[in-house]
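Section 3.1: Structural characterization of target chains.
Under the original work plan, the team committed to producing a structural model for every single-chain target entering the pipeline before any wet-lab resources were allocated. The record below documents one such target. The sequence was received from the expression subgroup and is listed exactly as submitted; it comprises 335 residues.
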Amino acid sequence: MDYRKIHIWEFPPTRTTIKLDDTFRQMLFKKAIAMFDNREKFISYINSQAWFYGIKRNHNSLAVYSWIKGKKMDRKMLRTVNVPLWVLIEISKILSNAKSMDNLSMHNIEKHIRYYSGWGRSIPVFPSSLPLILTPEMYSVIFHFLGDGHIGKTNVSSSYRQMNPLGLKNFLSKLQNSFGKFGYGLNEFNNGRLNVPKIITDFYAYYFLLPDTDTFVSYVPEHLKKYPADFLKVALFSFIVDEGNIGEVITIYSKNKQLLSDIHDIGEHCGYICHPIREKYACKKFDCYRFSISSYSYPQIKSDIARISQIFPTCDLAHKTAIFLEKIPNSSLSM
């Protein structure tokens, strides 16, 4: 199947910074400035375009010099300076004499990206190749954020908590397969938590138009329910990994009824037998909402996992896969 390509200019332009090859970056700015005769006119133009991105501050010659050099002195420390994506987009339009971001210069810029990141001390991501590919694996991560994950708002870190080591490694692999390699704290990881690079969660929120993913207000927008069947199936598998219990039936829990209703819709769209949502009580007090997927759907789920995981090995039930197979006599995913 041919999956959609995601180019760097489809990232949030004001939240993304880019590290380019040094020689290419300096040549790029030299060509752009030459189009305006001098640096002052170039700076004036960049500041005029900043308004269209909601940026109210003006950039001076020192800022541009830092972009060109890729570094600056700050508190007697030499620090790396990356170029804002929106600046590169505007430069590409200048050099290509184009109004569209999808132009020859921007394609050339994309080929010379060493890493992309957010602002400040954000964790950089080193892509194995660009453009990225919108796969079921990439899509499935959304439903981990709706489960045990958290997308932090501005200046708040994003993370995923999973106490099972296999489940946590599976999530890490999904991210790195989809976006590229990045560093993470081993102590936190060994304690069941992965801090996700801010640029990755900013991308998800921007590209997929995600609403708030906080526990009690999150939901699945209708446009995300319209993805192909395999995307929806791995989305459901991801949510089961975080919020499901596998026994004689698969029971999925949430305190958020709207979110659970959306997951129920996805399960039915996948062709699985989903029982109605019910309330769960503990000690005569409301605990959460739940619904179950019938064991009559187990053979189909098994077949779907076997087929999809041949292409995307992370898109199974992670550490719960073995538990699931135990419920089906003579089961094996080695098909």
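The CA atoms of residues 280 and 286 lie 6 Å apart.
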